[in-house]
Specification:
13 strands; alpha/beta; Aspartate Aminotransferase, domain 1; 16 helices; eight-stranded mixed sheet
Length: about 425
């Protein structure tokens, strides 16, 4: 079963990005932007970015280098660091291939890899903050990032404030003389609220504030963060970039102004990613476009169907007209992905458990972005959900995988029937 995508999103032009640049290896082991060549379509860049078969005897994929020590031919070469690679932690051809590809797709001046999405978030924050600084964070932020702000950053002497994601021009009233960074996440975790990234970034830049954004939900395919004013664009590569629920990875792409500090701190902290996870991300990258479009199509079918079910109070999905920030999504995004939140009408939690426990095609688990569908019960008191839900409602986050939407809807309908059949009187 398929459904036409929103006409505004289908017709939206692809934001400008860098031209396709192949085989421009960086001697530092970290990607930097090279000279542009005539721009290629995004799907073409996904297939070719970071690859140079001529360097590896014609083999299509960059080989997997598991490495720590790199030998030098002479003492002069060793001490002078004359070789492209000097130590496994500082980069290999495998890590460099992914860094170059991420830099190409994001349109940044440089990109680094991190062991997880959360480590990418914290690295980006630490690269632009010092003791005594003030950080502004969207109140719709990913829970573990909020935890890091409340723990690590406050312990380091950084002040943190959380602003409503729909604040728009009102952000200026939240700025302080010591505000140094603005952290966005659009759409926001759980509540799926879309923020006016270009407007918020413009205000921030007028006051010398660095702009960070986690846009893992859309990826660079559907949202070009740097083109919208973001200085540090963060991706949880564990999700759609890897795409198969078997790799852990984070990426940070930086503007020219933010790149030196990011690159330096990344090296100082000794951050690196295992070669196998990098290789899996490179493999996933090549099919990202076709997978993401399939996630989008399936999710829209299921989300629209759920809106019609009597047990559902609301569906929070940026591509749906009644979802918060939908007009901003139409303006700034060129597509949507497979993750959204379902608000159920008030029932006891035992009824929600009955709904979820019997699902056949939806796994119960954390993360998202893989080929499989997932369901996760949410605490309706978390983050921004209380502002969007009626009292007594329970929320479920769904990730729509690559299964047939008809089968997924049948599975969900059976679950909703189980939920409705729970003996309410016995639960009182």
């Amino acid at each position: 079963m398929t459904v036409p995508l929103a006409s505004a999103h289908a017709a939206a032009p692809t934001p400008p990005g860098p031209g396709l640049a192949l085989g421009s290896a960086s001697a530092s082991g970290l990607a930097t932007a090279g000279e542009s060549t005539p721009a290629a379509a995004l799907g073409t860049r996904l297939v070719h970015a970071g690859r140079d078969p001529a360097k590896y005897h014609g083999f299509v994929n960059t080989p997997l280098f598991r490495a720590s020590t790199v030998l030098s031919p002479t003492v002069g070469d060793l001490l002078g660091r004359t070789q492209p690679y000097v130590y496994g932690r500082r980069g290999t051809p495998t890590s460099e291939a992914l860094e170059q590809a991420v830099c190409e797709l994001e349109g940044g001046a440089g990109a680094v890899l991190c062991p997880s999405g959360l480590s990418a978030c914290t690295l980006a924050l630490l690269s632009c903050l010092s003791p005594g600084d003030h950080l502004l964070v969207t109140d719709a932020v990913y829970g573990p990032v909020r935890h890091a702000c409340e723990g690590v950053l406050r312990r380091l002497g950084v002040e943190v404030s959380y602003f409503p994601p729909g604040i728009g021009a009102g952000l200026v009233h939240w700025l302080r003389p010591n505000t140094r960074a603005l952290y966005l996440e659009s759409p926001g975790s759980l509540s799926m609220e879309v923020q006016d990234v270009p407007a918020l970034a413009a205000i921030a830049h007028q006051h010398g504030v660095t702009v960070l954004a986690d846009s893992s939900w859309a990826t660079p395919l559907f949202f070009q963060a740097h083109a919208r004013g973001v200085d540090l664009s963060i991706q949880a590569g564990t999700k759609y970039l890897s795409g198969h629920a078997d790799g852990m990875l984070g990426t940070v792409s930086a503007s020219a102004a933010a790149w030196p500090a990011l690159k330096s701190l990344h090296g100082d902290l000794g951050l690196c990613v295992g070669a196998d996870d990098i290789f899996l991300a490179l493999r996933g990258l090549r099919t990202l476009q076709v997978r993401l479009h399939q996630h989008e199509r399936g999710a829209l079918v299921v989300a629209r169907w759920l809106q019609q079910q009597p047990e559902v109070a609301r569906v929070l999905h940026p591509a749906l007209p009644r979802s918060p920030g939908h007009e901003l999504w139409l303006r700034d995004f060129t597509g949507s992905s497979g993750l959204f939140t379902v608000v159920l009408k008030p029932v006891p939690f035992a009824a929600v458990e009955a709904f979820l426990n019997g699902l056949r095609l939806f796994g119960l688990g954390y993360s998202w972005g893989g080929f499989e569908s997932l369901a996760l019960p949410l605490d309706a008191s978390q983050g921004r959900l209380p502002q969007l839900c009626e009292p007594g409602c329970h929320c479920v986050r769904l990730h729509i995988g690559l299964e047939d939407p008809g089968d997924l809807m049948a599975d969900l309908r059976e679950g909703l029937d189980r939920m409705a059949s729970v003996d309410m009187d016995s639960l009182l």
